[in-house]
Amino acid sequence: MATEGGSESVRPRGRASKREAILAASVELFNTLGYDLTSMDAVAARAGVSKTTVYAHFGDKLALYRAMAEKAVKVSDVDFDKLRIDENLTPEEKLTSLATLLVKALTSDTFLAFHRVMILESSDNQAISKGLVPGAPHVVDVVSAILAEDASKFDYEIPDARAHAALFVRIAGASFEIDALLDKNFRPDDNLIEAHSAWVTRMFLRSLRPVAASVSEADSVSPPPPDYPWLADRLYQQPVD
């Protein structure tokens, strides 16, 4: 069945697949048309379902938008929780892996599409973005728990673990997300993401741990980080002939 724009919809089977098809259609249409110009009829046509089905699942357009946003920000929640309880990993390894997952989630097509819509619409329609904080509070709670684990291991205190966790999340994810939003062709490769995650985690923990731990036991676990790879003159430097 052809829809507006020449795309063909795929009629899904089952309640769960219909919901996912509606969400996928909403990501595409909100991103290309914006919130105001996206109709429930258009979403239904693109998803290959009836408008009644769309309303049965989401109630109205604002509820649909918020469901799309929730799906985007929860894309890695399960993986975050698995890292938090993994007894085979040190707190540093957990944070490094979490930062890697976070960057990959923030630069995924689903999340970028959602975030572009939120940015475009937030100034004119604050209702659609009110209360939506990408990646929070769940990932902040997970990072807070991992930081508390590190504090217990190295015998130090964190006055406000959630504030530090929120800062870690922003430092780890913001630079890649912004570049991906500004350049639709930008996709950081795994090596760069992992190097960035290890660097941010190492420096962040060194700022929290007691000096004795930072220069002795902690350094014996993982070496000091190399030069940060994300600076433009290092990332985009041209080879010399």
Strand-pairing-aware structural class: mainly alpha
- When the domains are counted, the total is 2
- The CA-CA distance between the termini, in Å, is 54 Å
Tell me the number of helical segments per DSSP (H or I, 4 or more residues long). Answer: 14
Query: What's the Cα radius of gyration?
Result: 21 Å
CATH architecture of the largest domain: Orthogonal Bundle
Q: Give the overall pLDDT as a whole number.
A: 78
Helical content, roughly?
Answer: 55-70%
Question: What is the chains' assembly state?
Answer: single chain
β-strand amount = under 5%
The dominant shape is elongated
Structural description of this entry:
The chain is mainly α. It folds into two domains: 4-69, Homeodomain-like (Arc Repressor Mutant, subunit A, Orthogonal Bundle); 74-235, Tetracycline Repressor, domain 2, CATH 1.10.357. 68% of the residues lie in helices and 0% in strands. It has helices at 15-33, 40-47, 51-58, 61-73, 77-85, 91-106, 109-122, 126-129, 138-154, 161-182, 190-208, 211-215, 217-221, 232-235. The protein is elongated and about 60 Å long. It starts with 14 loop residues before the first helix and ends in a 6-residue tail after the last helix.
Notable characteristics:
2 domains, Arc Repressor Mutant, subunit A, 14 helices, Tetracycline Repressor, domain 2, elongated, 241 residues, disordered C terminus, mainly alpha, disordered N terminus
What is this entry, summarized?
The chain has helices at 15-33, 40-47, 51-58, 61-73, 77-85, 91-106, 109-122, 126-129, 138-154, 161-182, 190-208, 211-215, 217-221, 232-235. The protein is mainly α and 241 residues long.
